[in-house]
Amino acid sequence: MPRLFRAPGRINLIGEHTDYNQGWVLPAAIDLAAWAAFVPRPGRRIEIRSAQYKDCAVFDLDEEPVRPERRHWSDDLRGVARLLRRAGVELMGCSIMLDSEVPIGAGLSSSAAVTVAVAYGLLATSSASLGLTELALLCQRASHEFSGAKCGVMDFYIACHGRAGELAMLDTRSLEARWLPWPAKASLVVCDTKVRHDNATSEYNLRREQCERAARQLGLPSLRDAGAGDFARLEPLLAARVRHVVSENQRVVDAAAAIERVDYGALGELLNASHRSLRDDYQVSCAELDCMVELCRERPGVYGARMMGGGFGGCALALVAPECVAAMRRQVARDYTEATGLQPSIWECHAAGGVGEMEEKDVAH
């Protein structure tokens, strides 16, 4: 019987492109997950197959992996194995089979879910362990070193620490989280535009470089420490990037307060403001995302909507009165297809728990 491990995808209610600036974010693990089935094998070889890809990744634990010229879907997984070996974990040879419910490239952290599931499984099948935050940081490092994606820690943190029925207001500098209740009288609806732009990773890394350059020019450790008065000290492009980060950090704080006082009107306006900032100051939206967001906002019962994730395609997130969700989904899907020719996927999501091993009865099922 294989051992089966699960790690969730995530939404981020608000706080986009702030985690690599040591700011605040408001994510939740969701009820879509990646799965990794482990079967021991003799020797020092690891074989990884995925239901989402045709080719098989094979590598020896005693060989230092060479970073290929072109990115491969297994880069981060090879990376976590290598980093665990460097940390002194005696990994065992195994065959790993992957499957995922999390749409690839949709801004729901499909890559982080798979990476966390595999890293957790490698530890468990080797009778080793790491704290969940240390595991998240290791997975982030693998992404940086082995695939060149300079992502923040949020996706890995929430895949590790996610709680059913709760969102995390995460301080990405201290890695301390304050847990907030999932909106009890509102629904969070994910709207996948089905657009996947090839330039998303390069543009993401460029935004990070621009933020780091702005922080250096301001003499700050990170843009977490920037204020409104710093905009005038920078060239217009960098000023716009800083304005987004500063205002988005404040929106996270304000959103947490709105959740606690159950003020969904205020929370929806914060989502709307976040989208405008991402579109205009950070310039990571696209025509299809803007169209989806506007169509959502036009529907009765929608408090607010914004693009979510790295940008340049993927998903929008809408805050909707529960009684209006069914009609909103039908009408937005029709209108979006009419406007773009694309068939979106639109569904209500729910908060779920973080990474873990499935029990034998669940594996058999």
Number of domains: 2
Structural class, from helix and strand content?
alpha+beta
Order of strands, main sheet, comes to 5-4-6-3-1-13
Quaternary organization: single chain
C-alpha end-to-end distance = 12 Å
CATH architecture of the largest domain: 2-Layer Sandwich
Write down how many β-strands occur, each being a DSSP E stretch of 2 or more residues: 13
From the alpha-carbon coordinates, what is the Rg to the nearest angstrom?
A: 20 Å
Output mean pLDDT. 93
Beta-strand portion reads 15-25%
Low-pLDDT segments, ≥5 res: none
Question: Which CATH top level class of the largest domain fits?
Answer: Alpha Beta
CATH fold call of the largest domain: Ribosomal Protein S5, domain 2
Q: Helical stretch count? A: 10
From the spread of the alpha carbons, the general shape counts as globular
Task: Describe what you observe in this structure.
With 365 residues, this protein is α+β, with helices and mostly antiparallel strands. The chain has two domains: 3-180 and 352-364, Ribosomal Protein S5, domain 2; 183-349, Alpha-Beta Plaits (2-Layer Sandwich). Helix content is 40%, strand content 24%. Strand 7 (166-171) and strand 8 form a beta hairpin. Helix 3 (132-147) runs antiparallel to helix 4 and helix 8 (287-298) runs antiparallel to helix 9 (325-340).
